[in-house]
């Protein structure tokens, strides 16, 4: 049901953070994020890299820039995916099944904290989670 | 690390570019792109075996190549060739140009300059191309050898004249040593007498034919000798091959001469019955030997020049 | 009757499968070509990745490649020379070495080496990207993997096959010269004459084109095979197997075609 709802969302409107949309495994966190300004918005390599680093700094994870996917902890991986979604600058940001990605920390609080750090450039956030996790967000 | 990587790749790419460019320049240089080329036109009767790219050689070293072969207005063949300045210095006004088509390997135009003090040939000069081609003569030689062998085969065939003659001779000698001795052998019946006359006639013609064969072999040898000792006639390899042919032909000739002598003996059979009966066995062996040797010869010739036509030679 | 029907059905399934695969490869090729023709694809970042790919495909194995070329060339040159000497065709030995080794064997072996080393790696990587959803993630981000994943590998592959063949060929020419004439310059003029008679401009162009097609085959075919992989991890080895088989067939086909064009 969740998957069906997601596929109905047009890509242009929502940036999705999902366990089904992994990072490019052989690129570092910064390179993963920089791909978007580099190849979609046609900035040059240095500028794209700088934008990616700025975003990581703002999220408070500046030191994971050189890490690749297999070396990251679940929260670091989540942050990279989130940064990649943020840099798309789409009106809506959808986090799908956060529990599947952030299984090692109390994630509603973690997501709230991240959201507060990038406040102003984020647009509308939407979290899709299972019914039985509803109480976690109170 | 990234910088190091770029350095290595840069080094590799530059090396490859330099090598590729260097090779291109080398090929251009080898093709004479950078130097003044001297042109030479050769007139020939036939363009047979001449193709663009064929080398011009002086003393076995390449000095130029054929660039095009065209038909002139007058119907002759004009072979355009070019040489490097370095190679052109070997070409003089009295140089001769010979098309050399060896039995094995590619054809080439041989340049011989007997007098290197004579003036150099000017650019775009025209000269005559001579043709020396052993491959055109060899089939003729083979044809002759085949003729000889066919003759030998004809003589010694199972149902051939020689066998019949020998059988008859055997019968006669058998009768002579029989109850009625010489009388039956000589008189016998008419049926018996006729083959004797016939075989004697046969033997006569056979001897003549063998003489022919010998004469042919001799002619062949003379021709072979001419080739062997002719100047500029043949390439070294062909000379060796022909020397072999000569040796083999001499061998065959020797055998045939022995056959000849033996047959003469057989003709004298009535005069010398005892010797005759002994010789008949020997004769047969000799003929077999001759045929075997000539067979070997054909095999050898075929092996050396694999362009033989179908050769069919069976031992009787 | 049922047996016959079975055979027909199987043949049909095979044909359709073969057709789909060829169609996939062709579509991928046209996509590659349209990206190549697009000037905006050739930015600094693409060039950087191409450099990286050339490093991984060619520079990293250069020393191994040169050792291997030396060994093979030396053996074949020695055999050709001694055979030529025995049958009295020594004059033709240089041309034989150049024609067999330089024009045919070396490009083919180089392409085979790149296919074994980089082609299989590319196939596995693309198949894993497909199975792991990485390609979906990229398409969600509206980033075309063609430009930074596929094109650099293809360009790198083509450049590597050409570059390695050039280096190997020069090495072989030097080896051939040394084997025939030794350390003297006396044979240079006749050696040059043979080289110039073999390497007409048509032959040089054909050699370059052949190497380029080899490079194209050893990179695009594994990629196309990787992209075809169903999203199941156990299908990755099957995909590599299929891709490499296609690469081999394509290499042989290119070689046969080039020979046919040259000598028929």
Q: Which descriptors would you attach to this protein?
A:
heterotrimer; A: 138 residues; mainly alpha; Rossmann fold; 3-stranded parallel beta sheet; 6 helices; 3 strands; 10% strand; disordered N terminus; B: 316 residues; alpha/beta; Elongation Factor Tu (Ef-tu), domain 3; 2 domains; 7-stranded mixed β-barrel; disordered C terminus
Please, could you describe this protein's structure?
The complex is a heterotrimer of chains A (138), B (316) and C (264). Chain A has 138 residues and is mainly α. In chain A, 43% of the residues lie in helices and 10% in strands. A three-stranded parallel β-sheet of chain A has the order 1-2-3, with helices on one face. In chain A, helix 2 runs parallel beside helix 4. Chain A is globular, with a radius of gyration of 14 Å. Chain B has 316 residues and is α/β, with parallel strands linked by helices. Chain B has two domains: 98 residues, Elongation Factor Tu (Ef-tu), domain 3, CATH 2.40.30; 169 residues, no CATH class. The radius of gyration of chain B is 33 Å and the shape is elongated. By secondary structure, chain C is mainly alpha-helical. Chain C has one domain. In chain C, 86% of the residues lie in helices and 0% in strands. Chain C has nine helices and no strands. In chain C, helix 1 crosses helix 6 and helix 6 crosses helix 8. The longest helix of chain C is centred in the middle third of the chain and has 39 residues. Chain C starts with a helix and ends with a helix. At the B-C interface, helix 1 and strand 3 of B face helix 2, helix 6 and helix 7 of C.
């Amino acid at each position: 049901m969740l998957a069906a709802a997601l596929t109905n969302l047009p890509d242009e409107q929502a940036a999705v953070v999902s366990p089904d949309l992994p990072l490019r495994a052989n690129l570092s966190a910064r390179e993963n994020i920089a791909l978007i300004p580099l190849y979609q918005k046609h900035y040059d390599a240095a500028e794209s890299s700088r934008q990616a680093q700025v975003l990581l700094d703002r999220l408070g994870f500046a030191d994971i820039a050189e890490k690749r996917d297999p070396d990251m902890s679940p929260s670091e991986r989540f942050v990279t995916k989130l940064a990649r979604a943020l840099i798309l600058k789409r009106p809506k940001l959808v986090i799908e099944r956060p529990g599947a990605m952030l299984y090692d920390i109390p994630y509603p609080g973690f997501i709230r904290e991240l959201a507060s750090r990038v406040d102003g450039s984020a647009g509308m956030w939407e979290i899709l989670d299972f019914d039985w996790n509803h109480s976690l967000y109170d | 690390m990234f910088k190091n990587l770029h350095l290595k790749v840069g080094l590799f790419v530059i090396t490859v570019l330099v090598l590729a460019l260097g090779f291109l320049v080398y090929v251009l240089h080898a093709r004479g792109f950078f130097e003044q080329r001297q042109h030479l036109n050769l007139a020939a009767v036939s363009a047979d075996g001449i193709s663009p790219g064929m080398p011009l050689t002086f003393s076995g070293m390449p000095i130029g190549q054929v660039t095009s072969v065209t038909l002139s207005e007058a119907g002759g063949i004009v072979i355009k060739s070019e040489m490097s300045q370095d190679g052109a210095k070997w070409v003089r006004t009295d140089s001769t140009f010979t098309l050399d088509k060896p039995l094995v390997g590619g054809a080439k135009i041989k340049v011989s300059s007997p007098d290197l003090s004579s003036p150099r040939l000017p650019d775009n000069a025209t000269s005559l191309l001579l043709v020396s081609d052993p491959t055109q003569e060899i089939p003729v030689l083979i044809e002759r050898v085949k003729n000889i062998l066919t003759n030998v085969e004809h003589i010694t065939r199972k149902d051939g004249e020689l066998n019949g003659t020998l059988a008859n001779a055997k019968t006669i000698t058998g009768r002579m040593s029989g109850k009625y001795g010489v009388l039956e052998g000589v008189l016998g019946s008419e049926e018996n007498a006729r083959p004797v006359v016939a075989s004697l006639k046969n033997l006569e013609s056979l001897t003549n034919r063998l003489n022919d064969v010998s004469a042919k072999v001799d002619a062949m040898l003379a021709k072979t000798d001419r080739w062997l000792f002719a100047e500029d006639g043949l390439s070294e390899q062909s000379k060796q091959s022909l020397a072999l042919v000569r040796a083999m032909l001499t061998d065959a000739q020797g055998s045939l001469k022995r056959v000849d002598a033996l047959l003469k003996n057989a003709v004298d059979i009535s005069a010398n019955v005892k010797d005759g009966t002994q010789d008949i066995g020997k004769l047969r062996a000799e003929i077999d030997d001759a045929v075997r040797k000539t067979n070997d010869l054909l095999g050898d010739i075929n092996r050396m020049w694999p362009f033989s036509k179908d050769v069919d030679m069976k031992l009787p | 009757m049922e047996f016959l029907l079975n055979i027909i059905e199987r043949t049909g399934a095979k044909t359709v499968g073969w057709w789909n695969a060829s169609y996939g490869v062709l579509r991928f090729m046209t996509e590659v070509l349209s990206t190549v023709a697009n000037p905006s694809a050739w930015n600094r970042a693409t060039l950087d990745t191409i450099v990286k790919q050339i490093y991984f495909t060619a520079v990293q194995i250069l020393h191994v490649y040169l050792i291997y070329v030396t060994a093979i060339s030396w053996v074949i040159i020695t055999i050709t020379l001694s055979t030529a000497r025995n049958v009295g065709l020594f004059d033709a030995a240089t041309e034989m070495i150049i024609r067999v080794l330089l024009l045919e064997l070396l490009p083919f072996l180089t392409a085979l080496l790149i296919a074994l080393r980089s082609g299989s790696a590319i196939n596995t990587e693309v198949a894993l990207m497909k199975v792991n959803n990485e390609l979906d993630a990229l398409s969600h981000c509206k980033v075309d993997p063609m430009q930074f994943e596929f094109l650099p590998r293809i360009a790198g592959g083509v450049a590597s096959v050409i570059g390695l063949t050039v280096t190997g060929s020069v090495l072989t020419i030097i080896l051939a010269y040394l084997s025939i004439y030794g350390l003297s310059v006396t044979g240079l003029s006749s050696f040059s004459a043979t080289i110039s008679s073999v390497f007409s401009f048509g032959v040089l162009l054909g050699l370059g084109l052949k190497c380029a097609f080899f490079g194209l085959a050893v990179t695009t075919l594994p990629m196309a095979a990787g992209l075809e992989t169903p999203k199941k991890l156990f299908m990755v080895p099957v995909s590599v197997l299929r891709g490499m088989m296609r690469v081999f067939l394509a290499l042989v086909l290119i070689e046969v075609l080039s020979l046919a064009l040259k000598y028929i």
